[in-house]
Amino acid sequence: MLVEGPVEVVLDDGSTVVSDRFTVALCLCRRSRTFPWCDTSHRGRGRRQPG
Question: How far apart, in whole angstroms, are the C-alpha atoms of residue 20 and residue 4?
Answer without folding.
Answer: 10
